[in-house]
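RESIDUES AND SHAPES:
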Amino acid sequence: MTFCSWEAKRLVSLAIPVFLAQVTLVLMSVVDTIMAGQVSPTDLAALSIATGVWNPAMLALQGILLALTGIIAQFSGANDKTGISHYFQQGLYLAGVLSVIGLSIAYFADIIILKLDTSPAIANMAYDYIHFVKWGIIGFLVFSVYRNITEGMGMTKPAFYISLIGLAINIPANYVFIHGMFGMPALGGAGCGIATALVFTAMAIAQVIYCQLSKKVDAKTLLANFQAPQLPTMWAITKVGIPISLATFFEVTLFACIPLFIAHLGAVAVAGHQIAASVTTLLFMMPLSLSIAISIRIGNLYGQHHFEQLKKAISTSYILAMIIAVLLAAITFFGRDVISQLYTDDARVIALATSIMILACIYQLPDSLQVAANGILRGLKHTAPISYITFISYWLIGFSLGFVLARTDLIVPAMGPHGFWVGIIVGLSVAAVLLMLTVANRFKHEPLKSA
């Protein structure tokens, strides 16, 4: 592998603002959890159930629009403003269609919640949360379109600044609607739904204003002569985006389902798993941010037909991913005791969480490599293999093996939560190998030529 220091600097400069934006968005969820938890366990449980039902659907819809990043990156590399303008406008139409789908999904949420074995108070509050937060889907998807356009053009800082605005609004809005102020009723945990909807709407407005005023984005020109909906273009975005959406859905639901299959082991097992999962989710923002930066850079170079530089960018991406994996493994290993103690003072939970985190160290390498390869494929707009590779790796291999190891004595004595984490390691390793082979095969069938 060839390491290009200039490419590494370019990728890092793109990735850092993305990472900060992602962490800020995660912090909004943390704020919701803390503020709802301060009211009562019922409010916290309702918020947990509601977000568990709603977030996978919302992220799956956003995943379709993520296709725009790679598409716009290629047009930006080719300096094709007409192409950027066309896909920008059609992306907004598609966001409208996806918003209608999102609002429709919300009406089926009560069916899912009623099937859960929980108290009426928790179920009703979870239901209320979803029917408040659903009105934020429009702002969230419009924000996503604008964010993907600006990031595709190589500008990753605006999303970070706008996410800070969202976080600043989130805290007081939560307080107003949870506790009831300025004539508003006290809604408890369900009030987080109104606050989140307002945050997403405010972020969308801020992003639109920035893009309208920015000379670099020049949204006024891009949105001039607004065209009628073009179904072929909307389908082209959707076709590239669906595999990204499915991959996101498979990963989110994988981690969401594990607690259901270890619940019979008791609160200690679930709590230990949740602490490890929470920590690794936050740390995952680093390789995820690199993956987004990779898709932007690869799309730019492919659009410019700088194929020799593209080869260097790909190998540099893999090396950077490995460096990040080593860094995250070190943080997880050496900080596992201190981190666990931030979540709980129960010695049994701490012991379980720290032992799981040692396993989490092992999967950092395959996880970083598989999201790097994922970013390369998105930049090339070759996303179809992503969906079936992630499904096979995460579910057919990772979850199935995890279930056998955790719940049965077929291979070894039942390992409990550790079994699922071993399954995750194997699943992510398979995904990394298959996705990297897909990248290599893509170039084997379409050889890269010198610019």
About this structure: The chain has a mean pLDDT of 84. DSSP finds 17 helices and no strands in the chain. The radius of gyration is 22 Å.
